[in-house]
Amino acid sequence: MLSVLIPTYNYNAFLLVKNIQKQLVLEKIPFEIICFDDGSNSSITINNEEINTLSNATFIAFKKNVGRSAIRNLLAEKATFNWLLFLDADVLPVSNNFIKNYIKYFNSDKIVFCGGIKYQDSTENQKYLRYKYGKK
Q1: Which residues pair with 4 in a beta bridge?
Q2: Mind listing the pLDDT tens digit for each residue in 108-136?
Q3: Which of 32, 58, 90, 125 sits 20 to 30 Å CA-CA off 50?
């Protein structure tokens, strides 16, 4: 039913994946979470390996960086379900009903949804242009 796709680069995505996985389990729908590291080759990859301990969740670290668009295309190709939810690794859902609110549109005629996430306010994030841009 739902493939949650998370590209990451030099970022610990475990908290996000754990949060989303918990919400998906509560909704009792078929799902998978796939997280690809785009060749960051950092020690953070070890933290992200924990994603593989969660049910229906997979983390794969690529050795070579293929770029932002290419990694998203690879995630979409790997997905097994019809509904795709792309999340950036540095966001968290704004509520514990994020997935519940998202899946209620599965039977509608809308095919693209956006919103309902926020950036994690951490010292680490504040040094990145992407964080500043996203917050703005």
Answers
A1: 33, 85
A2: 665 555 554 556 667 776 766 666 666 66
A3: 125
